[in-house]
Amino acid sequence: MASSAPPTPGASESRPAPFTRLGNFWQRVSEGRRIDDLWSQFAADARSSYGFYGKDVDWDEVNQRYEAFKSGKSVQELAMAR
């Protein structure tokens, strides 16, 4: 008359051995380290190319346009152009 309960997931599974768990942990950490190295390399490349290509930019014109944008002058000109 006694009915058996359905098995719960993971109840019959045993935990991996400590060395296996340590190996899994180290794999996750080292994978994160590789991603961190890739990101650092990307950031360094971006900084160096920004410096290289930034020499070709007319920064005075960029700054003038930015100041005009900050002051809302562009929006005013668009509104008046209608």
Task: Note down, in words, how this protein is organized.
- The chain has 82 residues and is mostly helical.
- 71% of the residues lie in helices and 0% in strands.
- The protein has a domain at 36-82.
- The protein has helices at 18-54, 59-71, 73-80.
Key traits:
82 residues; mainly alpha
Which structural category do the helix and sheet elements fall into? mainly alpha
Helicity, in percent? Answer: over 70%
Beta fraction of the residues?
A: under 5%
Gyration radius, rounded = 30 Å
In total, how many beta strands? 0
Sheet with most strands = none
Number of helices: 3
Return the string of H and E elements: HHH
Quick structural summary:
The chain is an all-alpha fold and 82 residues long. It has helices at residues 18-54, 59-71, 73-80.
Give the SSE layout.
Blueprint: H1 18-54, H2 59-71, H3 73-80
